[in-house]
Design brief:
Elements (H helix, E strand, L loop, with lengths): L1 H9 L1 H20 L21 E2 L4 E4 L2 H14 L3 E4 L2 H25 L5 H4 L3 H23 L1 E2 L13 E6 L2 E6 L4 E2 H18 L9 H4 L10 E3 L1 H13 L4 E5 L4 E3 L7 H18 L5 H26 L1 H4 L2 H24 L11 H9 L2 H16 L5 H18 L6 H27 L8 H13 L2 H12 L4 H7 L5 H9 L1 H21 L3 H10 L27 H21 L4 H9 L7 H10 L20 H16 L7 H17 L10 H24 L1 H4 L1
Helix pairs in contact: 2-11, 2-13, 4-6, 6-7, 11-15, 13-15, 14-15, 14-16, 15-16, 16-17, 17-18, 21-22, 22-23, 22-27, 22-29, 23-25, 23-27, 24-25, 24-26, 27-28, 27-29, 28-29
């Protein structure tokens, strides 16, 4: 069993990455629609470049989106909503009014005639005179309710007097004008007007008594015609479903288009109809397995090309499972979003921000990798996106513009500028393709420009997405580096306070290293930030480092050479502990770990040999733990750190002494094999030397010219 598992233990990383690629292929294939692809590519307004096309089978000619939308709009314009006439409202309100009126009569009578006996009340003139008003009010309410009071709603807000509606009364539907009915407001006004006219015409003694005016007749005016949403929607949907999707047939054997003929609007619709039926037939169960096999080959080819690119140009990614997972996950997420979006609407594919792919990849890697992954992603989506060539071309140009325009992500204005450029690129290229195909401006799908604007807005999601990916995968973006390189950061303020000489040394190293990396190529912000933090371990014992000694007292005089060497070496391990305590990214901790590589503490090492020439020496006690620099930025930092530190011991600031110290320090590092990495060449090292000499000469010439300011 152990022998069987041994190969898996030895190659589990390779197996895991293999599984990642296979899983990615499987998921992408599962997202593809199970339909075949029409063998011919064509565009409206361009000539047919293939052989003469004969209809291979009978198929209907499908109406275009614009025609279908026009027919839908026509139906919706002529469609009349349904309302229910509720007869029960009249009965309910009549009962309420009669009870209300009787109570008002008794209340007024008892207040006006408190000494009248119960027997005399029934025949009193008050009840005789007010009974006529009661009958009038009941008839008035019946008149209004029988005419109908339409409920005010969102449906009726846009109605005019000539608007039509269908009333369902006793299960019979009849069409009416909206002007035939009262609204609640007009019903109020009519009742109040009639009520006032009746009171004015009254000739009994109660006319001015206030009784009639105390009757609030309008309280019993309520809508009795209500919008029937269920019936209206059912009728509307039925009308829309009855729209025919086709407008004719093409018979088998009929010629569709000859080679060289220009594809006009009518022929384009016929070709789209053939394409639709052709792909639908291929997607049937009979062809399912064959289509699936073809899709597997296509996706495998794209992912295999991505693998080969990483293998040949970015082995560091393939050697790291987390980095490999990140690359594949970005591709997978975008393809998945595109697949889901296409199921919602064809044109909604323009909302998907494909430009985010190169932006995010470029943030953590380089432009070449960003462009390649963008191309692979667009090709995968282009296989099932409508008008594949147009889709690929449009997004290819937009992706390139996004890469070129976004040079510094840590500047917020740059991202906004890139988002605007992506929108303009989409709009410009699409406009060119549209007028080429349509031959006029009226048929352009102007709604697509809104989609492009939304797409550009989504590009601004780069900031939160980059932050999320940083936290999940442990990456380091320029935005984070910019924040960490701020000297107001807590750890750097503490360094400036406890070890001011070291802080100044770190600043000088940062300037040297940044200038060199800009010239030889690399990430200047990364090397600058790494330089600022590379010596933070010196905060533990600041006086043991010469740049922090100002009084002439050297605490190393109190220690043996081995002890002093140990204190000096420990600033690396102390720095790593401090960095982890303050949660600095591992990429910056690597600068702390490697800035001395595996070199020796030369001063104490030579002093020990000089004092004890015959004594056996443990060289490990005078050697930094390492590792050696394993990137161009780390190698440049090591050179800058050593050169800047050594230059502080200069007493003669002429060009010759500066050149000699730069040459000797860097040559010693090379001879000691401290940065023997493939990333940095002899030409790069020569350039670094030249820059260091120039920079140091400028610094020390200033010291000579303005010694009082330097002091």
């Amino acid at each position: 069993m152990k022998k069987f598992l041994k190969p898996f233990r030895n190659y589990y990383k390779i197996i895991f990455r293999f599984i990642l690629f296979i899983t990615t292929i499987a998921i992408i294939v599962s997202l593809f629609p199970r339909e075949g692809k029409f063998r011919y590519e064509f565009q409206k307004g361009r000539p047919w470049l293939h052989e003469t096309l004969i209809a291979p089978f009978d198929f209907p000619i499908y109406k275009g989106e614009k025609q279908l939308q026009f027919e839908k709009d026509s139906i919706l314009k002529s469609y009349n909503p349904y309302f229910i006439f509720d007869s029960s409202v009249l009965i309910l309100e009549m009962d309420k009014f009669i009870q209300y009126y009787n109570e008002k009569q008794i209340e007024y009578f008892e207040r006006k005639y408190p000494n009248i006996s119960q027997g005399e009340r029934q025949n009193h003139s008050f009840f005789v005179n007010t009974s006529d008003f009661k009958d009038f009010s009941i008839n008035l309410l019946k008149e209004v309710y029988n005419s109908g009071i339409v409920e005010v709603s969102d449906i009726t807000k846009g109605f005019s007097e000539n608007s039509k509606l269908i009333i369902l009364k006793d299960n019979i539907a009849q069409e009416h004008l909206y002007s035939e009915f009262y609204s609640q407001k007009t019903a109020y006004e009519y009742v109040l007007k009639k009520n006032a006219g009746y009171i004015t015409g009254k000739k009994d003694g109660l006319k001015n008594s206030g009784f009639y005016k105390s009757i609030n007749l309008y309280e019993f005016v309520h809508p009795n015609i209500f919008y029937d949403s269920k019936t209206s929607e059912n009728v509307k949907n039925t009308l829309l479903k009855n729209i025919s999707l086709t407008k004719g047939m093409v018979q088998q054997g009929e010629r569709i288009i000859a080679k060289g003929d220009v594809i006009d609007g009518k022929i384009h619709i016929v070709l789209e109809s053939l394409k639709h039926d052709f792909e639908t037939k291929l997607g049937s169960s009979y062809y399912y397995r064959i289509i699936l096999f073809g899709q597997i080959i296509f996706v495998f080819a794209c992912i295999a090309v991505l693998f080969l690119f990483l293998l040949n140009f970015r082995k560091d990614i393939l050697q790291n499972s987390l980095k490999t997972l990140f690359i594949l996950m970005v591709v997978l997420i975008v393809v998945s979003i595109a697949s889901i979006t296409l199921k919602i609407s064809v044109n909604s594919i323009y909302i998907v921000p494909f430009a985010l792919v190169p932006i995010i990849i470029k943030t953590f890697y380089d432009s070449r990798l960003a462009l390649f992954i963008h191309i692979i992603t667009v090709l995968l989506v282009g296989f099932f996106a409508p008008n594949g060539f147009e889709f690929v071309f449009l997004n290819f140009i937009a992706g390139i513009i996004a890469i070129f325009s976004l040079t510094n992500l840590y500047r917020r204005g740059k991202l906004i500028f890139s988002a605007a450029l992506v929108f303009l690129t989409y709009s410009f290229v699409y406009f060119g393709m549209a007028i080429t195909q349509e031959g006029n401006f009226s048929n352009i799908e102007w709604n697509n420009f809104v989609y492009f604007a939304i797409n550009g807005g989504f590009v601004l999601l780069a900031y939160p997405l980059i932050y999320i990916f940083e936290k999940i995968f442990g990456f380091l973006s320029d935005v984070t580096l910019m924040e960490l390189s701020d000297t107001n950061q807590k750890l750097l303020r503490e360094l400036a306070e406890k070890a001011p000489g070291t802080f100044q040394h770190s600043m000088q190293v940062a300037n040297l290293a940044e200038e060199a990396i800009i010239k030889i190529g690399g990430n200047p912000l990364l090397v600058r930030t790494g330089a600022l933090y590379h010596d933070i371990g010196k905060m533990i014992n600041p006086l043991y480092f010469i740049e922090n000694q100002r009084t002439g007292f050297n605490p190393h005089d109190m220690h043996e050479f081995v002890e002093s060497a140990n204190i000096i070496i420990n600033h690396v391990t102390d720095g790593i502990e401090l960095a982890r305590k303050h949660k600095l990214p591992e990429k910056l901790i690597d600068f702390i770990r490697t800035h001395h590589g595996t070199s020796k503490v030369q001063y104490f090492y030579r002093s020990y040999i000089k004092k004890f020439p015959d004594k056996e020496i443990d060289i490990n006690k005078f050697t930094y733990p390492g590792p050696k620099p394993f990137s161009k930025e780390m190698a440049v930092l090591m050179m800058a750190d050593s050169v800047e530190a050594a230059s502080r011991s200069l007493t003669d600031y002429n060009d010759s002494t500066i050149d000699n110290i730069v040459e000797s320090i860097i040559n010693n590092k090379m001879n000691d094999m401290q940065f023997d990495i493939s990333d940095i060449t002899f030409k790069d090292i020569s350039t670094v030397k030249s820059i260091f000499k120039k920079k140091l000469a400028n610094i020390y010439h200033i010291r000579i010219k303005y010694p009082e300011k330097i002091a």
